[in-house]
Design brief:
Elements lengths: L1 H4 L4 H5 L2 H32 L2 H23 L7 H20 L4 H30 L4 H30 L3 H17 L13 H10 L4
Length: 215
């Protein structure tokens, strides 16, 4: 509870393992996620035999994102958020690996939908983990730094996938790398835990309780 009342400076937050667990995890996963999504149509055009069908997969991905965000939002507060995030990362990475290794069109559509189920929730878990570890008092300060990781990752992903595609003349290698990065992010997020010695001045708690009527 104390962590929810503590005011974190940027430098204090950056000296915690929890901060770097979130930062690295979402940097890697968004490199992978955005790298795949941006190149998804080009990759699936050949698989599905139609550019319009490949483009429609973006709608399927978006639909999965909306459905899953609404569904997971109803129970996310009642489960271990790190474990839930790890599961989302593992599902996303596995979907990419399965998509590039299947020749079945129906399986490709199903996996594309499942991949979409992870997208919106990954962004949601980013903010939930920051709030859990650093509290809402300093949420804006810490989340601003964490979101920088997401923005950098989202920018580097498509560039990296494109460069490796050109170097290897295909998407198998770059998409395999994005899957492995997603698995690595699942390991990193396990370190996203509150600092063991997070404290808050006693008067800070008293003032907050007084403001809320002691509730």
């Amino acid at each position: 509870m104390a962590v929810q009342y503590r005011t974190w400076t940027r430098s204090e937050a950056m000296r915690t393992v929890g901060f770097w667990g979130i930062f690295v995890a979402f940097l890697l996963v968004l490199v992978a996620q955005t790298g795949y999504i941006v190149h998804q149509v080009s990759f699936l055009e050949e698989r599905l035999g139609s550019r319009s069908a490949a483009a429609f997969t973006l709608s399927v991905t978006a639909l999965g994102s909306i459905i899953a965000r609404l569904a997971v939002g109803m129970f996310a507060d009642g489960v271990d958020r790190r474990l839930l995030t790890v599961i989302l990362f593992l599902v996303q990475g596995s979907c990419i690996l399965l998509i590039i290794n299947t020749e079945s069109v129906p399986a490709t559509w199903i996996l594309t939908l499942v991949f979409g189920l992870t997208i919106g929730n990954i962004y949601m878990m980013q903010s939930l983990l920051v709030g859990e570890i650093f509290g809402m008092v300093s949420f804006g300060t810490v989340f601003g730094l964490i979101s920088l990781a997401g923005q950098v990752g989202s920018g580097l992903g498509p560039i990296g996938v494109g460069a490796i595609h050109d170097a290897t003349d295909g998407y198998t290698v770059p998409f395999t790398i994005t899957a492995l990065l997603t698995y690595a992010s699942a390991i990193a997020v396990l370190f996203a835990r509150p600092a063991k010695h997070a404290t808050v001045p006693a008067d800070g708690v008293i003032e907050d309780l007084a403001a809320t009527g002691g509730k």
